[in-house]
Structure formats: structure tokens, C-alpha cells
Amino acid sequence: GDEGIYAEADIPQEIDRVRELVKLVPDGPDRRFETLARAVSSLRRENSGERFLIFTQYRDTLEFLAEELGRMFGESDIATLKGGALE
Question: Where would you tag: which of 7, 30, 40, 41 has the fewest CB atoms within 10 A of its CB?
Fold first, then answer.
């Protein structure tokens, strides 16, 4: 959601520490996305006239997938539906 949980924390040299941690993340392709892209390619090959849905929990993930899959398969073949809170 748009709400977050905030807590007061005094972390010495927090910004520098976060930058160090970010550098630990390996560069390179996202294996999960590569697996999804292969599955989408396979489904499109086997069932060229079929449509399918990909559900995500987070909107950032939805936007990432729409952009990347749009690049691979054509933006006109991608549609996004945004739901609301499940409360």
C-alpha cells in the first residue's frame, strides 16, 4: 500500500552502509525474469492465438514486466489491469 511503517533509528553512516550493500548485489540478468520470458515465449509458440494473465502483487513489478515484455513481444500485445487493496 501507500502507507509504510516508520521507526526512529540512528544508524551510524547509514547512507554509506546502504551504498556498500547495494554494491554486493551481482550485476547481470534477473534469472526469474529470464525464466518467465522463456515461459511466455513457449506459450506464444504453442498457442499463438491464446491470451494469458500474469498476476503480480506489487505495481512496480507490474510496470517492470509490462515494459520488459512489451519490448520483447510488442507493447500493443501487453495490457495491464490494476486492482485495489484486498481489504
Answer: 7
